[in-house]
Amino acid sequence: MNQLGRFLTFIRFSHTVFALPFALGSMVVAAWSDHHGWPGWRIFGLILLCMVFARTAAMTFNRITDWEIDKRNPRTEGRHRLFSKSGAIVAWLISSSLFIATTALINPLCFLLSPLALALVFFYSLTKRFTHAAQFFLGLALSVSPVGAWLAVTGSFAWPPIILAAGVLCWVAGFDIIYATQDVETDRREGLHSMVVWLGVPGALSLAGLLHLLMLLSLVFFGISAHLDAIYFLGLILVPMLLIYEHRIARSLDLAKINTAFFETNAVIGLLFVVIVIASRLRG
């Protein structure tokens, strides 16, 4: 594996697919009235760059702050061998700077809010040291993406992206609770906090189910507020099926299957969302 490949594995670049579809769906809805669903290649490209730079900055910061903890976790003990800590610090500084610079090319409001967006995504990495609500802070960090995409297109706030952001928060917090069941013993040993440590695995999985129900309701209200048509709402029927599948695997406590459920199922949910939003707008 070359240096770039090692770095992309180090930051789990493939997991960018979780937040990206919701940013793109928000972008399509925001652009529809003035641009027929397409804001132009320039804004589209800048949104993609912001997503990549922000997530790279967030993940390198996470790896830096958790460097020693990850060495003691059987699931993550090999991370430090993929990339040097000094290289991670350089990557963090560069990606953070590129994110801010890219927002400056979009509009003044995005540029003004860019430090706040970075602060949110960085803060998550610290929360498990003092609060069991760490998963909610991860959800908050990723929920910025649909709001940011909307602001990039329109330069103003509106209810649809805020409703969608609430759904993303619940979705991410729910699936990260499932993911955290893999680390419950390590977290307890290290004195770290999570909803799984606080509630135990059965209680945490029940909470994850409730959060995913709230996510579904948010997606419904997003469709209503964005004036999406029947194609969108019919497509949403598949989402609870995918979530039920994910939760059934999670309750098996099979760690290998949990990894599959975490990545594949949630990637499909994100892809489904952006497809039904685009289909709804094209039909309209």
Summarize the structure.
This protein is an all-alpha fold and 284 residues long. Helix content is 81%, strand content 0%.
Features:
mainly alpha; 81% helix; globular; 284 residues; Tetracycline Repressor, domain 2
Write up this protein:
The protein has a single domain, classed as UbiA prenyltransferase (Tetracycline Repressor, domain 2), CATH 1.10.357.140. It has helices spanning 3-10, 20-35, 41-65, 67-71, 79-82, 85-104, 108-127, 134-154, 159-180, 184-190, 195-225, 230-236, 238-252, 255-283. The protein contains 14 helices and no strands. The chain is mostly helical and 284 residues long.
Outline the secondary-structure elements.
Layout: H1 3-10, H2 20-35, H3 41-65, H4 67-71, H5 79-82, H6 85-104, H7 108-127, H8 134-154, H9 159-180, H10 184-190, H11 195-225, H12 230-236, H13 238-252, H14 255-283
Return the CATH topology: Tetracycline Repressor, domain 2
Rg from alpha-carbon coordinates = 19 Å
Share of helical residues: over 70%
Shape descriptor: globular
Mean pLDDT: 91
Helix-strand topology string? HHHHHHHHHHHHHH
Beta strand %: under 5%
Distance between the termini: 46 Å
CATH superfamily: UbiA prenyltransferase
Segments where pLDDT lies below 50 for 5+ residues? none
Biggest sheet layout: none
DSSP strand tally? 0
What's the level 1 CATH class? Mainly Alpha
